[in-house]
Every structure is written in C-alpha cells, then in structure tokens.
Design goal:
By secondary structure, this protein is an alpha/beta fold. It contains 13 helices and 12 strands. Helix 1 runs parallel beside helix 2, helix 1 crosses helix 13 and helix 3 crosses helix 4.
Length: 351
C-alpha cells in the first residue's frame, strides 16, 4: 500500500511517527509532506522520517486562502508522482482536497471541536473522520469514534519511556519540583477571538509558582526581556520528558495539557471554548483543570496550580494508571484501521 501523510503542525509529527515506523516495517511505502511551521521539520529529521516540504503557509484570511490554493497545487504535484492509495492527516484540507481530485480515500484525525473553519475545508472531501469518544457532538456519518486520546499515539507506555537525563539539561535534581508554563501564539484558525493569559498574569503566575518550584517557560511567541531567564533550555525533542518529570503543566495549549494528563502530570488549561478531551481528563480522571480566559479564572487558575504543587506526586500517577487501564493504544488502532480499510469502517477493533 502507498500512503501519503500530510503534516501541518509539530504535534502531528508525534501523532504519526510510530505509525510511520510500523507501517514501513510492514512493507508499506509512505510519503510524508510537511508544512514548515515552528519545529516541524526539525522533529521529522530527529526521528529520521524523510519528508518533502510544502512551504511555510501564510498569515491572515487572504494569505491563508491564497496558500490553500498553493498548498493544494504543491501536494497535487507530489501525489501525482507518488500515486498514493490512501491519504492520512490530522484534518488537513490539502490532503483532503487532493485526495478527492485523485479519487483516493482520505482518513482524517480530528479532536478539536472549535476548529470549525478548518472543517469546512477538509470534511466534505474526507472519507473517514476518526475522533476520540470525548469529542463533543458529531461530524456526521463519516465519523468513527475511538476510546483513547490522540496523545496516546506517542505517549502510551508501549512507545514512551521517560529519559531522566533531561533533568541534567534543566539543572534540577530528581526530587526537585518544577513547573512548565506553555504560552501559544494564538495564530491558528481556531484561535481567532482568543487572547489568552495577559502578560501581567503570566508574571503573577511565575511569581506565585516560584515560591514552590523552579519555573520554565515554553512559548511560541518571543518572551519579553524580563522573562528570558525562564526559557526552557531543553530541545524540542525532549519536551515530553520535561512534561513527565514536571510537577505542573500550566498554560494555553490543549495538546500539552492532554500530554501532561496521560503522563500523570497535573495540568492547568486556559481556553474560553474548552475541548472535549480535556473535559474528560478533568471530569473522569482529575488530571486536567479547565479554566476560561476571564480575569477571574486567570487568577483562580494560579491558585489551583499552587494546590496541585502541594499535592503528593503519587496521587497523579495513580490517576494516570486509571486512565491507561481504560484507553487503547491509539497507534495500534490506527495501524489496524488503515491496513484493513475500508472493511475496518464496519468492524469493531479488538486489542
């Protein structure tokens, strides 16, 4: 089988990297195309996954529309040369639209309910949409739900073993508490209308957490001079080791909040619209604590973070064990689904 995987964000590299290795071992031929966004290309290189770039994309409504046409053209040229049997992506409009032009199936992953604009451009052209059971609402007859979180594609214990050496990179001792704060750029389509934490409250959170732990910051946006001292010194490839050993994840990234949850690290997530999967990780497993972006919630989130820092770490690992007992290994499911497609649409997955 020939499979074309389109990647548009660093997180997508993690969704598909184990799938890529397994499918290659199974004898399938795979082409990876990737947008040049943040450390996407760097991650693919670090995992030794060959890829072809489809450019940097564009900002603004007009720029994004123009790039949609350009991205389709780039992907179409590559697909005509590769001749894939199936397309796979995380809600990529480019993969969806080109697959439709070539009359080949497109399997999309999607766990982001508020990405309504993106769905307008990929859903009509996709054959299957795979989403977690926690996904709010329905994407129609094309949607199939699985009992897992996307982060378990790469952070399931079958694939992830934390590297304690990252603590040396951070300059912290094994039992020393530290907080990872994550700030996003709010430039994605589904981020329109969001502002996130104010700079004043970021500083307030740093000051509050610093009384209980060492603080590190991972930020998509440049940090002001006074916060540069907190910049995370670890490379992008080691971020999950950092999250595993952290005492708290605090910030604006739903993906990182979920990564923390499946690794047994409590997470504070601030977002006005929320996400189905972080809702489940709060209500069922008490590993994520969701807050809006309101002034009152920003202050309350800091207080909740302090409470989490004062909680025994064993409690969080017990909650992680409960989560892992109930959720499937998502990479194994994805391998099964693609290799058995289209019959897999009508079959029940058995581990």
């Amino acid at each position: 089988m020939k499979i074309l995987i389109d990647i548009g964000h660093p997180a997508h590299v993690h969704y598909f990297r184990n799938f890529y290795k397994i499918m290659a071992r199974h004898g399938h031929e795979i082409m990876v195309t990737a947008r040049d966004k943040e450390m996407t290309h760097e991650l693919l290189q670090s995992y030794e996954i060959p890829f072809s770039s489809r450019g940097k994309g564009a900002a603004g409504a007009a720029g994004k529309l123009a790039y949609l046409l350009k991205g389709d053209a780039i992907l179409l040229r590559k697909a005509l040369s590769f001749k894939p049997d199936i397309f796979l992506s995380f809600s990529s409009p480019y993969a969806a639209q080109v697959s439709a032009l070539l009359r080949k199936p497109h399997i999309a992953l999607d766990d982001t309910e508020h990405a309504k604009l993106a769905r307008l451009f990929y859903r009509p052209f996709s054959d299957v949409i795979l989403s977690p059971e926690s996904y709010r609402g329905s994407s129609g007859r094309k949607q199939i739900k699985f009992n897992s979180f996307l982060e378990l594609c790469y952070l399931h214990p079958d694939y992830f073993t934390p590297d304690e050496k990252v603590l040396e990179t951070l300059g912290v001792e094994k039992d020393e508490k530290f907080v990872l704060m994550r700030f996003v750029s709010w430039q994605a389509n589904h981020d329109i209308g969001h502002q996130g934490l104010t700079l004043e409250n970021k500083r307030m959170a740093i000051e509050a957490f610093s009384k209980y732990a060492t603080v590190f910051i991972s930020s998509e946006e440049p940090l002001p001079d006074d916060l540069q001292q907190y910049r995370l010194p670890a490379p992008a490839k080691k971020i999950h080791d950092v999250i595993y050993y952290a005492s708290l994840l605090y910030g604006e990234s739903g993906t990182m909040a979920s990564e923390a949850a499946v690794l047994g690290t409590p997470a504070i997530f601030l977002n006005d619209t929320g996400l189905g999967y972080t809702d489940e990780e709060e209500k069922r497993y008490e590993l994520v604590f969701n807050f809006s972006e309101s002034a009152a919630d920003q202050e309350a989130s800091i207080n909740r973070g302090i409470e989490a820092l004062q909680t025994n770490a064993d409690k969080w690992q017990e909650k992680r064990s409960a989560l892992l007992d109930e959720k499937i290994n998502l990479t194994d499911y994805l391998v099964w689904f693609v290799e058995n497609y289209p019959q897999s649409m009508r079959k029940t997955y058995l581990e």
